[in-house]
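Here is one chain, start to finish.
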Amino acid sequence: MTCECDHLVVCYVIVFNLIKVQFDEFFFFIHVTKTRGHPYRLFVNFAKNSVRKNFFAHRVVRYWNFLPADVVDFTSLSHFRQTITRVDFSEFLVID
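Its structure:
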């Protein structure tokens, strides 16, 4: 799941404003006080065409929102990189 981890690191950099890009061009937050998981849940606008559906934001948001709050450490980028390796992404594997 190296590719997913790399995408999650890029997502972290965007979410926590460690790179100069417009956050709202990729994602948006919905501030709900009663949610499962971590407090940084992301959402993307509905994609009307297949090109937009395969865009980075649409691919990564599912993995990002899946991250368990008790496993992943959002305090710094280095902690985040270390802790996402402990997440089991087998739920996302597609076996034909």
